Amino acid sequence: MLAGAATLAGALGVALHYTGWSAEPLVLATSGSPYLMIGAIVGAVGFAATRQWVATGVAVVVAAVGVATQAPLYIAGAGGDGHPITVMQANLLFDGADPSALVEAVRSRDVAVLTVNELTRAAVTALGAAGLDQLLPYRYLAPGQTASGTGIWSRYPLSDTVEYDGYVLNQISATATVPEVGPVSVYAFHPVPPVYDTDVWADELSRLDAVLRRSPADRPVIVGGDFNATYDHTRFRAMASGRFADAAEQAGAGHLVTYPTDKRLPPLVGIDHVLLAGAHATSVETVALPGADHNALVARIILE
Q1: Per-domain residue ranges for the chain?
Q2: Share of the chain above pLDDT 70, in %
Q3: Which of 73, 35, 20, 70 lies closest to 194, judged by CA?
Q4: Which CATH code is given to the segment(s) 83-303?
Q5: Which of 173, 194, 261, 285 could form a disulfide with 187 if both were Cys (CB 3.0 to 4.6 A apart)?
């Protein structure tokens, strides 16, 4: 019975990965798809131990399909030559994140472009006092109350700044002029979490995808954000398709869990991402950010 239940859990994980059901419990369960898929492996072992060979075969097939859904995260893609820079994405938990820790992470990792979510005016002041504006002197910010604020800091001059209307939280973009490369489109996104309203969540992801599809095709694009969606959500994978790719998948970085970091359990899901077009990632890592409830992401990328 336990082997059967474990195999059904694995099958559910696979189904959630592919189907994109919109009911809130299923959207939330999709975040845990990789954990559910492990059930099929447990089921195969259990059935094999009791010599139930047909059931073992079924469990093995489910497990194999589950592994196939996750394998792309562990296989690095090939990339060309170009200009290397480092990008960082951080959710600040309003003004909870330690500003000195964030600034030290930017300094020690030679970050050139930083995107932030949940940026308050108090956090802007604290980050400036900690020295962020000296490291990244150009910025475009849309701070707000609690979770609504979003920002971009850059080593390179920013122009063509845009704040997109019609979203619950602030969504922004700018153009960074990178020496030896030219204009690079930079987006900082933060769609609402599905617990706010799954229909709004799905609509915002769809409309943000459309924003990216309208980005200039003749230049690289960097997108940092708390997407409130994991690799297993079909709507996120739709965004990371075509000319866009998930930096972690490109680098073969595996499952990078970023949330939550303020609980007794370790972080369980990866909802922070860097998307790229006209660029490829050579490495992506998580960075602890004291006082926040997310790990930050640091991606070393090549602008092609």
Answers
A1: 2-74, 83-303
A2: 100
A3: 20
A4: 3.60.10.10
A5: 173
